Amino acid sequence: MTEQHAVAHRICPLCEASCGLVIEREGQQVTRIRGDEADVFSAGFLCPKAVSLKELHDDGDRLRSPLVKRDGRFVAVSWDEAYAEIERRLPPIIAAHGADAVATVLGNPVAHKMSLMLYFPRLARALGTRNMYSASSVDQVPKMLSVGLMFGNWMTVPVPDIDRSDYLLVLGANPMVSNGSMWTVPDYRGKAKALRARGGKIVVVDPRRTETAQAADAHHFIRPGGDVFFLLGLAHTLFEENLVRLGRLAPHVAGLDALQAAVQPYPPERMAARCGVPADVMRTLARELAGARRGAIYGRIGTCTQQYGTLASWLIDAINVLTGHLDAAGGAMFPKAAAFAANTRGKPGTGRGVVMGRYRSRVAGAPEVMGELPVTCLAEEIDTPGPGQVRALIAIAGNPVLSAPNGARLAAALEQLDFMVSLDIYLNETSRHADVILPGVSPLEDAHFDVSFGQLSHRNHARYSAPVLARADGQPDEWESLLRLAAIVKGMGRNADLDAWDTALLEEEVQKSAGPATPHVMAALAPRRGVERMLDLALRSGPYGDQFGAQPDGLTLAKVQAAPSGIDLGPMQARIPEVLRTPSGKIELAPAVLLADLARVAEALGAPDEAPTLVIIGRRQLRSNNSWMHNLPVLAKGPYRCTALVHPGDAARLGLADGGRAQIRNGARMVEAQVELSEEMMPGVVSLPHGWGHDLPGTQLGVAAERPGANLNALLDEQLRDPLSGNAVLSGIAIEMRPC
Q1: CA nearest 228: which of 136, 310, 159?
Q2: Could you tell me the pTM of the whole model?
Q3: With 0-12 CB in 10 A as exposed, 13-18 as middle and 19+ as buried, what is 563?
Q4: Which residue, of 179, 431, 569, 683, has the greatest Cβ tally within 10 A?
């Protein structure tokens, strides 16, 4: 191998599957990307997104230097000039209006960036603002809230142990496309095929016969937003037919009688009309799940993005408990991450639990969850005058103008800000409103460790990626960008000694746990700096770590770096009661706040069922999970994908033609989309993918603009939320359609 030719390993950062890649390069040019067959987690699997990493790195539209807006136009400047502009304009806003005058908003790519995940908390603490928002509240907060209430931590999420399962009931999820969502499972297709080959069964319940459903043993349509009625019918059946089997969990469960009483009014025969699933099907599925030797029910984004999102998320895990499938091999189990998992730290089996609603948003009164407010509240917090009004925004790797409901209002609000900073790789629909844009680094220039997805992985492992390509001269690492912003906010100035401050901050954190051993720990971490030092600390003090010499065979960052295809830490193991962090030390099967929210279900059942004749849902697509992927030619090519899927019967009734264009309306909100007739749709349901709408002025996304598509979120009401979690309601929205 010549000095110019080199082979590197990289964890793919483009979706949750986190596949291991082998990347070949000549000098600074990538020549080939393929799956790493030796990878301990993905075993060579990869999807079309992985090969687009080269196009992402080479994309002429990707920002390489900071931009400052002058006289309404962006001008390329040096990093020092960009930080000087931030230092000139941001601190005076905080001084005049207080910490809450600054908001932050994080996008989905943050979860795939170790630097951003680990150093945003530094910036957040420096700001001290309550106005923090993220893409989580258009995606997953209901699940995180429900598991927090049940198990004591926001990230204690049980995931299907698919490699050992023989029955999987999938609700509102499409892992064939996503390869898991809040369930990191590369090559779901292969694992599902193996499950069925060993005599297992997969059943999908979804308003669309998805790719996952087409490869399953059975599929049943369900009314969008009807999941809570379906799940209550299942839970009722388990109690009524004496199918509850807690097994070894019995001593570790609190609230069984309260749950039984709560679901008693909801038999399948009463639920069927509201969810669209026949009562006999519900009873059969409950019996199959209860009778499976190793099985689980798994629900995802369709169960979260609705008005009963938290209730549905709770009932899924409650049903896994009732059937004896929680924390059991082949059921829904708890990963044990090598680093950063709160449920591996502190005293095992008990804790403080979670607290929500510590404060509320200024305008709508939406509750705080996990230190965040719903992103659908951001626009009103900016455009509503009064004490506490948001006047400045720091946006990090996010595009809420496209990804959140009523982006038009948010776009108008962003123009009213006194100051906005965006850390992003593109001049997109959101960053176009910024006064300063700090370009993020290419994933190929970045070190990586899966901070979040190790906590959601179907098999335990530890993998690290070193940068594949060198960064341009002067380009800071993203952790350095965030820390410099924090220094500016703290009054230390843009020229603060970041290394000295970072060391002081880390030493302060180590002191809390290591006490007198702090000097020994800090010496062991030297000479690493920044994000890699933080990772080494987490690995060494984690559940598999060397404990700084006390466990010589344990993990260190050096050991993980020496294994380019990762270190296998084995299948998931039973973790109850050790994993629990509830004050009672038990699984809270019937949290009071969730039982109280069932009153909304009772109220709905007591009212006439005024079901709309036509509703809309979103959908995931393999080549466009996020809006910025539409600017990569290898993913954008092929058939046009931003189509509205319509059942042929609905199309005939509405006069819609395959390939024709239609207006889709929700009151005064309207988009136009291309129609695609599809038998896979439930009659009365239309599906339009999210993340499109690249026809707004002021962006620099040349490929995406060629096929802009229609923005589903432009139809949605930003005031419509799950009241417990604050998550946006994106599914089951009543619409009207007619030919253009």
Answers
A1: 310
A2: 0.97
A3: middle
A4: 431
Longest dimension (CA), the chain: 76
Q: Residue 3 and residue 572: Cα distance in Å, rounded? A: 41
Instruction: Please determine, looking at this structure, whether the domain spanning 612-739 carries the CATH number 2.40.40.20.
Output: yes
Say how far apart CA 242 and CA 239 lie, in whole Å. 5
**Residues contacting 622, CB < 8 A, separation 6+:** 47, 48, 49, 177
Q: State the pLDDT at residue 3.
A: 57
Give the HSE-up count for residue 530: Cα atoms under 13 Å, Cβ half-sphere.
20
Single-letter residue type at 473: D
Alpha-carbon torsion 339, 341, 343, 345, what sign? Answer: positive
DSSP string over 185-219 = -S-HHHHHHHHHHTT-EEEEE-SB--HHHHTSSEE
Length of the chain: 740
Long-range contacts of 536-542 (CB under 8 A, 24+ apart): 537/506, 537/510, 538/339, 538/340, 539/338, 539/339, 539/462, 541/513, 542/337, 542/338, 542/339, 542/340, 542/341, 542/344
The CATH code for residues 5-58 is: 2.20.25.90
Q: How far apart are CA 33 and CA 51, in angstroms?
A: 6
Q: Where are the domains of the chain?
A: 5-58, 63-129+349-456+464-490, 158-337+590-601, 497-562, 612-739
| pLDDT, mean of each 10-residue run, the chain (740 residues) | 79 94 95 97 93 94 97 97 98 98 96 96 98 97 98 98 98 94 96 97 98 97 98 98 98 98 98 98 98 98 97 98 98 98 96 96 97 98 97 97 96 98 97 98 95 98 96 93 98 97 97 95 96 98 97 98 98 98 98 98 94 94 79 90 97 97 97 97 97 94 94 96 97 96
Q: In the prediction, which pLDDT does 341 show?
A: 98
The amino acid at 430: T
Comparing C-alpha atoms, which of 538, 558, 524, 515 is closest to residue 345? 538
Measured CA to CA, the distance from residue 534 to residue 622 in angstroms comes to 33
The amino acid at residue 609 is: D
Amino acid at 566: G
pLDDT of residue 627: 77
Query: Which CATH superfamily groups domain 158-337+590-601?
Result: Dimethylsulfoxide Reductase, domain 2 (3.40.228.10)
Question: Taking the alpha carbons of 43, 45, 50, 51 in that order, is the dihedral positive or negative?
Answer: positive
Amino acid 524: pLDDT: 97
Residue 180's nearest CA partner among 162, 196, 200 is: 162
For the record, the structure tokens of 32 come out as 């080939």
CATH number of 63-129+349-456+464-490: 3.40.50.740
Beta bridge partners of 170: 204, 298
Tally of CB atoms within 10 A around 631 = 27
**pLDDT given at position 48:** 87
